[in-house]
Amino acid sequence: MTVGVFTVLRDRNARVYLTGLIVSGFGDSAMLLASGVWVKELTGSDGLAALVGLCAWAPALAGPFLGNVADRMRRRTLLITTSLVLAAVMTAPVTVRSAEDVWLLFAALTMVGTGTVLMDAAETALIASAVPDDLRGDFNGLARTAIESTSLLGPLIGAGLFTVVGGPAVALLNAVSFLLGAAAFSLIRVREAAPARRPRRNWTAETAEGVRYLWRHTTLRPLVVAGGCAMVASSLSSTATYALLDNGLRQPAAFAGVLSSVQGLGSVVGGLAAGALLRRLPAHLLAALGLTLFALGALARITGFLPVVVAGSLLIGLGLPWPLISALTTVQKKTPGELLGRVAATANTLVFAPTGLALLAGTALVATLDYRVQLLAAGVLGLTTAALLAVAGRSRAVPSAGADAGRRPREADAAKKG
């Protein structure tokens, strides 16, 4: 594990990209939490405060369409341009002073959410050409670790900064983070060919091309669907946390920080180990293993026994990154470059867009049912998805061997004729 991580960090492009990812991700996570508090203070409305998360999440639904942009431009140029535009956008909330100005904050956050979807697609495609193939599993694991780290530290610093100097300062921090991200992305050294010329078709037809490729690919489809199921199960588990603390552990709400930190530690370890594991295991088996660990962690929370619950949080954090990293790395390896922006954006939509709906469903369930029912549902979903993924991978391996065996003589004949 250590060898792979240090090998990635010795790669200049990987270091530069990870720096940009950490800086911009930190600003985003700080701003998202501070925005909810900001809206609550200005309007007094819990519903409007919750709408902040929807603004950031909703653009993911348009991922397949936005992925077209990533296939029409050089990806590094798109990353730099989008970062600069978002830096300018985040200066607008500085003028928010009253409840009547809140719409400006919502508009800015929606644009940031849209830009994030666009950048995710461009980043996935750029890394496929900027980072060597044998390092991508380790790199994606490090990137997931970086995202988890910023999501732990960013909200704490954002909340503290909001309390001390107010929302405009957090907005400016986010704007600066986008500027620094653009500077980091500009330092990536990669020779990108001009986007391939394609027959002129309407936007919908080009979007459908990426969706079709992903959905018809017998390796990519189950991995991406499994990643989406992992995120749904995670949402069901996370929305039961406060009910678990109150009714199961008899702990104050602040103890959620302990569970979150333990889960974050597990995610860091899981992300760092992913590359080494992908060199030893097929992607579908690593994803199934991660889902199994997650499920065991969710089921451990049902016990209401504090040491077991804490251990369950560690398992959740350890296992959850693996189906996500397996899907992303396989998308990069199995998708032609001219389609990678659209396929990556479609994959991100299928993996992350259901999260918002699952959070809403989980919130409704925990208000009406015992929290253990919700944790059981998360565990069962994880185990079922793991089993189906393992079976799909095994059943696919047998025909593919036969197909390859039947194809090689024809390829050899063609070579001889040539």
Overview of the molecule:
With 418 residues, the chain is mostly helical. It has 17 helices and no strands. It has helices at 2-10, 12-43, 46-57, 63-72, 75-89, 102-130, 136-165, 167-186, 203-216, 220-238, 241-249, 256-280, 283-300, 306-319, 321-334, 340-368, 371-417. The longest helix is centred in the last third of the chain and has 47 residues, at 371-417. Mean pLDDT is 83; it is low at 398-418.
Question: Number of DSSP helices?
Answer: 17
Helical percentage: over 70%
Overall pLDDT, averaged?
83
Helix-strand pattern? HHHHHHHHHHHHHHHHH
Topology of this protein?
Elements: H1 2-10, H2 12-43, H3 46-57, H4 63-72, H5 75-89, H6 102-130, H7 136-165, H8 167-186, H9 203-216, H10 220-238, H11 241-249, H12 256-280, H13 283-300, H14 306-319, H15 321-334, H16 340-368, H17 371-417
Helix pairs in contact: 2-3, 2-6, 2-7, 2-8, 3-6, 4-6, 4-9, 4-16, 5-6, 5-8, 6-16, 7-8, 7-12, 7-15, 9-16, 10-13, 10-15, 10-16, 10-17, 12-14, 12-15, 13-14, 13-15, 13-17, 15-16
In short:
The protein is mainly α and 418 residues long.
For the structure shown, list the relevant keywords.
Growth Hormone, Chain: A; 418 residues; 0% strand; mainly alpha; 2 domains; globular; single chain
